[in-house]
Amino acid sequence: MTSFKDIFKKSFIQGFTRYDMSPQHIVIIMTISAIFALFIFTTYRIITKKSFYSKTFNIALSLITIITTSIILTIQSSIVVSLGMVGALSIVRFRTAIKEPMDLVFLFWSIATGIICGAGIAEIACILAFFMVIFLYLFEKIPVGKAPKILMINCNGYDSENSIIEIVKKYCKYYTVKSRSLMDNKIDLVIEVRTSSESMLIGEIAKQENVISSSLLTHDGEVTY
Asked: If 37 and its partner were Cys, which of 65, 173, 186, 213 is the partner (CB 3.0–4.6 Å)?
């Protein structure tokens, strides 16, 4: 004889093991997700036009959105399947390092859009895309401090540093000696400088009698304010 407890357990499990969703509804959701994926693909391509662009990473962003949507749809179909999928995904390990912080932002955007579309709340995905574009555009327009230059000098005589520093003070708003090497009465200086008179600075240093060589280099490191 079936007890009330067995009936309750059976009804409870059946209520979570089947989710009626028509194929048309699934196709609509996946199409909306694909549209957002193309939008993210285009946005990432435009944002990274001035820096290093990885086409494979951009394609991966688009596919992550669609895959995440399909996962959310599958999880909604059955609580048993959802628990199994959580266990399966927990053993996945991604060892590819994200070098650019902006890539991490787009990665989270793709995952979030996939989750939102899979939950059937496309309005939130639209609002998210709108604010993402607005903030990316505004932050792109914010001026960033100009990175300092690297001045490398090789000269004879340990006392040559004083005269070189005086010239650097004359043309530079900011400077700091990063490296100083002494050997056989020769000195190698590496100085981080910020100047708008690059040609005049390097020209006057090159005219010094004890200077053997001088170079002014740019770098892509952190900006010093």
From this structure: 65
